[in-house]
Amino acid sequence: MKNIHLIFVSILFIVSCVSKKKFKSLDSQYQQLNQSLKNCHDTLEVKNQVIEKLHSEINHLKDSLDFANKTIYQKNNKLDSLTAELELKTQMIETCQENLDNLKSKSSKEIQNLITSLEQLQQDLISREQKLKEFDKLISERDNELQTLINKLTTALKPYEEAGLEVKLKNGEIEVSLSNQLLFALGSIEIDKKGKEALAEFAKVINQHDEVNFLIYVEGHTDDIPVTNLGDIKDNWDLSVMRSTSVIRFLTKDCKVNPKILVASGRGEYEPVREGKTNEARAKNRRTEILIIPKLDALMKIIEKK
């Protein structure tokens, strides 16, 4: 009985040893397989990244291809346009060549006539250039003369600026504007003492010119209030003209200004310098303007010269 027991224990021991060995072997295989699986996962992830990168590159290549196709389309359109333009230019060249051939085929007499016409045109051009130079010279001389005259007038009449006198260059003409405050009492055509002094200074400057190349227009201006109780003066037209003639009469008789260069005119109320019904506006409009206008005789002679 004791021997049987020993045998049984021995068998159990042997069986136990064999199972532990097998377990270790299986466990080792499991670990290897698990590591292999992990490696596979890592490899798969890398492959996926590569695939995504390839997809991105493919998309980029598609965009580049689309852009290239558009560029090619535009270039083709431009090429078509240039081709059409080239054809048009070719036709023009052919037409010019035909015209040239036609000219070559003309008789020598016709060609000589053409040369003569061209020479005449050239002479005309030279003549026009000469006229233009004469024009420029006369205009320059006129401008210098006007500038000298306006400088003298500005200096001579400066003491009367506060009394309503103004000297300025306007559209190639000298304008001397004298307010009625300086020249005339309200409704009167008699020149005040201070106005005569200003006109005398004006005349001194004018009389310094031995050769007079200008005309002097004296224009009377009134406000818009109708005249009343002024005897023979019926309206603002009469008043403006009579004031103009009063100034001219003083310039010619008292100041010895050449009457041939003076022109009297009246504009009444119809050329105001300030709009409005205020006393200030009306006072500004009551004035006498002396316009010094250069003569155009020399310029007209150049125009008429053949």
Termini, distance in Å?
168 Å
Shape label: elongated
Share of residues in strands: 5-15%
Which spans of ≥5 residues are poorly predicted at pLDDT below 50? none
Rounded radius of gyration (Å): 55 Å
Give the helix proportion (percent range): 55-70%
Number of helices: 7
| Helix/sheet category | alpha+beta
CATH architecture of the domain at 138-304: 2-Layer Sandwich
Largest sheet report: 5 strands, mixed
Strand order of the largest sheet: 1-2-5-3-4
Would you count the extended β strands for me? 5
- In CATH, the homologous superfamily of the domain at 138-304 goes by the name OmpA-like domain
Secondary-structure element series = HHEEHHEHEHEH
Q: Give the overall average pLDDT.
A: 83
The CATH first-level class of the domain at 138-304 comes to Alpha Beta
CATH topology of the domain at 138-304: 60s Ribosomal Protein L30, Chain: A
Q: What features would you highlight for this structure?
A:
5-stranded mixed beta sheet; alpha+beta; 306 residues; 7 helices; single chain; 60s Ribosomal Protein L30, Chain: A
Description:
- It is elongated, with a radius of gyration of 55 Å.
- With 306 residues, the protein is of the alpha+beta class.
- Helix 2 crosses helix 4 (193-207), helix 2 packs antiparallel against helix 7 (297-304) and helix 4 crosses helix 5.
- Strands 1-2-5-3-4 form a 5-stranded mixed sheet.
- The protein is 68% helix and 11% strand.
- The termini are far apart.
- It has helices spanning 2-105, 108-157, 180-183, 193-207, 236-254, 279-285, 297-304; strands spanning 165-170, 173-179, 214-221, 262-266, 287-294.
